[in-house]
Design brief:
62 residues; 3 helices; 0% strand
Length: 62
């Protein structure tokens, strides 16, 4: 599968948010393995999302 610049942002969002289809995930992860600079950005996005979710939970819990 070829990931174009135009569709890459959408794929990254789906991957980070856990919404990526199982049929696409292996090809996307292979793409990330071949592109360590993009992989690093995706890893940062995943870490940031996890932090925001924990922060949101703390705010709701009061």
């Amino acid at each position: 599968m070829i990931f174009t610049t135009q569709g890459l942002a959408s794929h990254i969002c789906d991957y980070v948010e856990g919404r990526m289809a199982d049929t696409i995930r292996p090809a996307f992860e292979a793409f990330l393995a071949r592109n360590p600079d993009i992989r690093a950005q995706v890893d940062q996005a995943i870490a940031g999302r996890a932090w925001l979710l924990r922060f949101r939970t703390r705010l709701i819990a009061g």
